[in-house]
Design brief:
alpha/beta, Rossmann fold, GMP Synthetase, Chain A, domain 3, 3 domains, six-stranded mixed β-sheet, 32% helix, GTP-binding, nucleotide-binding, GTPase_Der
Amino acid sequence: MVSEHHKLRFAIVGRPNVGKSTLFNRLVGKKLALVDDTPGVTRDRREGEGRLASLQFSVFDTAGFEDVVDDSMEGRMRRQTERAITDSDLVLFLFDARAGVTPLDLAFARLLRKSDVPVVLCANKAEGKEGQIGAAGAWEIGLGDAVLLSAEHGEGMLDLYETIVDRLEARGIDPFAHEDEGAEDDAGEAFDPDVEVIEDPLKPLRVAVVGRPNVGKSSLVNRILGEDRLITGPEAGLTRDSISVVWTWQGREIKLFDTAGLRKKARVETKLEKLSAGDTIRAVKFAEVVILLIDAVQGIERQDLVIADRVIYEGRALIVALNKWDAVEDHNKTLVDLKEKLEIHLPQVRGLPVVTLSARTGRGVDKLMPAVLTAYAKWNRRVPTAKLNRWLAEATERHPAPAVGGRRLRPRYMTQVKARPPTFALFMNRPGELPESYIRYLVNGLRDVFDMEGSPVRVMLRKNENPYDDE
């Protein structure tokens, strides 16, 4: 019996390419999971908040089942699927009605029969005559009648709803005990950079882990969580879409996004890689703090700087984490070289926080979350207008703006228009003529005086309202 405070959890399972991610997207009402004709796109367990008519639940999208139990990538994917089944109250077992029942479907059915979790058999892609003929072979699986579905077109959802309710009630579970629980998952909300988001301490802090392929992003997330939640291994590119995991750290709810490795654009060759890159960029947009993970042995490369530049462009708080620190021979030289490159190539976020760690051994990982919260606080920084203008007067007196065409440029007044990231409006005569070097001087001063090191700081120039000023 499900406890009063336990939200229903459903797992979508089946062999590769039967439409699990399509059904997942249908149930959560958003395109959170990558969908492609290539088998095996999904490799990690993805979780979302689903709804089916009046039924509310958490739902897991799982990797395609392979009948192997070794330490290969397929074996690791199978263990993730088995864990999702164990963690669920009900399993939606999909098979491809157009392809009919396969030996792999039968092998998976044997595994499910050993589990105590109730199963709803679903014949997906059952639209049309061919699909209905293939669905008729469901009796071979031995898990009762199949619900005929088309996850892509939304057909059969009412039948699925009724079957799920029947299965749960047969187990003594009230399907509607949690109808009003929880807020809408915000992972699919559009981000508007011109609208300030007021911090809600009840909402999870969104943190994305990004970087080049095979630098240890999934291993780091597993180490932070203290469990093998994501598939890891020596193969590059194991993570293909952005996986979010909600977890609590020192009483604060955190939503962690593990993302696909971003390669140079010229090397992104397949449609699937393009989808993965787009998914990673969306995760950066929805995150509030981004951890750029770098392989400390290989050092910082141009692609790392490109990724960092994209994070800054999106206005996110950024932390650099050096992984595999235990394999570095000269710690001091490596750290000095990295910080020099960051200062040269990313001057717009001077003073980026750098954390050294080893996801493999766990050393230094405990420094990461305190750094995340510090970066988040600086990203949310608000400066009172009076204090801001006292600073502006001192800064312009110490280093006056240049004269252009024989006339002095005069910054007059500054106010903060939003946080997240800190954004300021500077009112002055002839704003279009203020050199970029002077804007950098003001930005660096703001960052130093008001403790915003490492955070993007934006200054927008506005013309004075006084039409007689300096004319």
